[in-house]
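Quick entry, no commentary yet.
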Amino acid sequence: MPLLWAAGAAWAHPGQEEAQLKAAFIYRFAQFTQWPPPPPGREFNYCVAGDRELQDALRVVAQKPMGQAAGRVLVLGSPAEAGPCHVLVLGFAGRQELQLWLDALADSPLLVVGASAEAFRAGAIIALVLEPNGMAFRINHSEAKRRGLMLSSQMLKLAREVK
């Protein structure tokens, strides 16, 4: 299956455009990740903490099925609510807030995606980074393996940085 990372559409303003691009990346990340048994059931849950525009953009992406599972977006207020999540998107820019969530969910088999460069330094598995020439991402492959997740080699090749 070819990897398609760009999303083509007309957007109302830059913040919304960035959120839609991030949502498209997150959908692809989920497609190229394998979770430990048991596999996702009839629902595939994208969970978001922070970043209202990204929540809205993920709702559009979640309408596409993930394999046999229907997509759903859950908005979380605390790490304790992350039980049903497969992908957790942290829309926080501050390291303290990121660290709180990452520490609380350290052993969960979640694909944790941070929507900022700071998320990568804090320990997220994938961090989306807006660069002058577009969107890029960094992968903490060691953290993914520690959580029991297998990331596609295709995705690893496309990452700006892998550690």
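second:
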Amino acid sequence: MTPDLLTALAAFCFVSSITPGPNNLMLMTSGANFGLRRTLPHLLGISIGFTVMVVLVGTGLARVFDLIPAARDVLRGVSVIYLLWLAWEIATAMPPGQGAHEGRPLTFLQAAVFQWVNPKAWTMALTAVTVYTPGHSFAAVLLTAAIFGAINLPSCSGWIVLGQQVARLLTSHARLRVFNGLMASLLVASLWPVLA
């Protein structure tokens, strides 16, 4: 990989990792509701799960969509349903210790598996492999995944910190419910590129 291509890949990784999307909105919500320590498994699940996704997409999984075009539609449908369910869970969650439907952060495994139904993650992985992985050699795929993992983790961490700062304003249950409703609405709005 040439230095120019490496620089372009790093820039793509940073911009696509730090901009709003389902992962970052959920991390911000989790940071506001549960703090950094309880959100760490969620963060690590995103970063490691996405890195594994890039490796698998780069080593041939993307060809499934060429061989079975209906697989893309199935993935889109599952993604929409799952994101709507997550938005509902966020919108209706009670603050910790406040009731039967008490909210909780995603686990490592839930966050890692979520990458497979996250439309933005698919777009990022397919773009990285298609555009920035010359020759699609295994070494180039591993390098692309490693760069994504190294940049994605600190970029996404900032959203948890932002959520913690927002939590300072969420001093009442009413404010927290409004915040959770807003975050759920933004999560639903992130489906627009998938549905358009």
